[in-house]
Amino acid sequence: MKWIYINPITGYLQFNKLKIYEANGDSVFFSSEGLSLHISITRLFSKTLEINNLILDQPKGKVIQHQKRLNFDDLITLFTNTKSSSGQNPFHFEISNIRINNGEFSFLENEIPIKYAINKMNLESKGIKWNTDTIGCNVSFHAGKTNSNVQGNFTINYKTFDYRFAVVARTFDLDVINQYLKALVNYGTFRATMDVNLRAHGNFKDEENINAKGSIILNDLHLGKDSTEDYASFKKLEMDLNQLNPQKKQYNINALWLDQPYFKYERYDSLDNLETMFGEKGSNISKAKANSQNFNLIIELFQYTKVLVRNFFTSSYRINKLTVSNGNFRFNDYSLNETFSINASPVFISGDSLDKNKSKIYLYFKSGMLPYGSASANLCLNPNDSSDFDLNYHLQQIPASLFNPYLITYTSYALDRGTIELAGDWMVRNGIIQSNNHLLIIDPRINGRLSDKSLYWMPMPLIMAFLRQRDNVIDYQIPVSGNLKNPKFNLKNVWKHIIENILIKPITIPYSVHVKNTEEVIENSLNIKWRPRNCTLTNNQIKFIVQLTNFLKENYQEHLCISPISYADMEKEQILFFQAKKKYFLLKKNILTLSEKDSILLDKMSIKDPVFLHFLDKQFNPKVMFTVKQRCSAFVGVNVVTAAYNLLLKQREAAITAYFIKNHTSRQLIIRTNENAIPYNGFSYFQIKYNGTLPESLLNAYKSMNRLNQNEPRIKYLKYRNKNKITV
Which pLDDT does position 507 carry in this prediction? Predict the structure, then answer.
């Protein structure tokens, strides 16, 4: 210290610039610009050490933890009385009127490691006396990167371990969680802030003995691969508590609101994004739980939360208002030969007066589906019996081509048309199911077979002939009965339609051919479809384009407008895979260019070829780059893919315009700038718009299709086709 002042008559002590060093070390454990106190001299004679007005000015302290040991354990040992005082008058201790002014304290755990600090700490306490069992104080401090202000008071009975507290915090930085997270994950980051206005009382010995009320708000939570890619996040989670008392099974929540939740789940060739982060089947978390030597705040919070909510559904609960707004849930599957992606957004869930004492509670779900479609559901649930509920759901306007990555992998075929609609009504009583589910697929159509050797094969044209009815729909009612543990799907309706198709469809083949030809005339007159990576026109497409050029030549005042719509993500993925296989093949064969035979061979070669994957894994660590797509991108380079994609667009445009130039009608042709989108039918295409008179063949086809749609058997599905005009 710099100096010390002692008055033995009044018992006043003052220390200036006090420093206390670590045991057997030269680093400062505790320091204070000033420390003053009064000791009652007279009470020393009655074996009582009474300290009054203990004031610490600008104290600084450092707490260091190694496993379960702390850097002040030696002080605890030093002042612990190990001798029995039986038969003797004990020496009493009292301290009153404690005050800390503008303190700074830090915590360091070297093994994880963890660093956390608070500053501008002010504390006031009346202190504690030897013949009392309660201590309380008022405290405030600033903490974290946000320098949030925390204010509160608490009271603890150190004999019964009863406690009472009130705390108010604004934008409290939860960055400390990020440090504990490192012990649980292979990679990843966390960030969030918290607002708290909470009052509670309980007992430390009984985790369920807590009675709390107030509000807890988590803001801008992000958990993900790194600071730029989230796996889970939300804008705000707000819980307004009227009463939380697990011991008495009382959960009275005024409002529970989750705003802009986001969750992304991805499947890779092995594991998924959560397992790559937390270890296979959560092995990292299991190891951390098994290590009793290390304290982990995340695990402790999770365990405590489980205690608080484990009896929720068997308790007397009430949620006056439940809201989930603007949710976004994504699923990507990279384990297939093509990437499958679907996105539920925006998601809304709501429920009012969710009360255990009511006979029924109602929950409502509504969501858009990206790239196309929507979903909705209404749930009426008996809060006292989860096996007693009514459910109504409806998925609509889902493009069948969305599931092509799965269809291609498991059948070798893709769909290039079709709209899926699924609806159902479930009534469940005592776990017994009575339900009907309606599956409707409008105008499905199978594309040509792919010859990739890694793909499974199913005779899809034959299967579709059995499943699809003569009005070009798949329409099945599928009742479900049994119970929740063993549901039974009644497929009588499916088999009935299959038998009818076998018996009736051969008779109606001329009608089906007429419908198909009419649809193709309309479709081919409105767009030119491209297979992935392909810029060569089919014979039918060439025939149609020649008819267009002749139409323009005969009608010199008419114009055509062609708008290229490219499925850029899918096209670039296919280009990337081909370029990766090409580069690998050239390196392996030590050649500079591909022959036509080589190109055909690479087209048939699977992107999941074991030898090729082994080559990529040697070049790029699969524990860092989880998908084949990522490793191919690193192998080939983004610039190569971009250049090949731009060249493909130019070649497609040139393939079209060549026929207009040859027929001297190029001046009547307008080609718009390419637009990147996700086409409803799953393939890139050139959209054709007629500025003026329509070709006679198209007009006749429109008239014919209108007549077909207005009559049996297609009139039954007219409203669905009108709703899904994009399918033609």
Answer: 67
**What CA–CA distance (Å, rounded) separates 628 from 620?**
10
Please give the DSSP secondary-structure letter assigned to residue 623: T
Taking alpha carbons only, the member of 211, 201, 205 closest to residue 246 is 211
What's the CA gap between 566 and 686, in Å, rounded?
8
Highest mean pLDDT among 65-74, 122-131, 163-172, 481-490: 163-172
Contact 576, 607 (CB under 8 A): no
Question: 616-660, pLDDT tens digit by residue?
Answer: 999 998 888 899 999 999 999 999 999 999 999 999 999 999 999
Q: How far apart are CA 717 and CA 712, in angstroms?
A: 10
Q: What are the pLDDT digits (tens) for 281-302? A: 889 888 888 887 777 888 888 8
* pLDDT at residue 53, as a whole number: 92
Give Cα separations from 9 to 3, 6, 38, 307, 384 (angstroms): 19, 9, 11, 56, 73
CB 31 within 8 A of CB 19: yes
Lowest mean pLDDT among 26-40, 62-76, 534-548, 714-728: 714-728
- Of the CA atoms within 13 Å of residue 571, those in its CB half-sphere come to 25
Q: How far apart are CA 420 and CA 396, in angstroms?
A: 6
CB burial of residue 423 (10 Å; 0-12, 13-18, 19+) = middle
User: Peptide bond before 679: cis, by omega within 30 degrees of 0?
Assistant: no
Q: How far apart are CA 608 and CA 623, in angstroms?
A: 17
Using a CB cutoff of 8 Å and minimum separation of 24, what contacts does 419-424 make? 419/443, 419/720, 419/724, 419/727, 420/395, 421/394, 421/395, 421/396, 421/397, 421/720, 422/393, 422/394, 422/395, 422/396, 422/398, 423/393, 423/394, 423/395, 423/396, 424/391, 424/392, 424/393, 424/394
- Residue ranges with strand state E in 400-430: 415-429
Taking the C-alpha atoms of residue 633 and residue 635, their distance in angstroms, rounded to an integer, is 5
The answer to whether 106 and 115 are in contact (CB under 8 A) is yes
The answer to whether 20 and 56 are in contact (CB under 8 A) is no
CA distance 444 to 471: 11
**Residue 86: per-residue pLDDT:** 55
Res. 728: pLDDT tops 50: no
Q: Report the amino acid identity of residue 392.
A: N
Encoded amino acid at 720, one letter: Y
493-507 pLDDT, tens digit each = 777 777 777 766 666
Rounded distance, CA 436 to CA 294, Å?
Answer: 53
Q: Nearest-5° angle of CA 257, CA 258, CA 264?
A: 165
Using DSSP bridges, classify how beta strands 114-128 and 60-66 pair: parallel, antiparallel or unpaired: unpaired
**3-state DSSP of 488-503:** EECCHHHHHHHHHHHH
- 394/243 Cα distance (integer angstroms): 37
Candidates 302, 222, 228, 227; CA nearest to 262 is 222
**DSSP notation for 326-342:** EEEEEEEE-SSSS-EEE
Alpha carbons 365 and 425: distance in angstroms, whole number: 15
Angle of helix 638-662 versus helix 568-589 axis, rounded to 10: 110
DSSP three-state, residue 700: helix
pTM here? 0.86
Residue 599: in which H helix or E strand, if any? helix 596-604
Cβ atoms of 386 and 360 closer than 8 Å: no
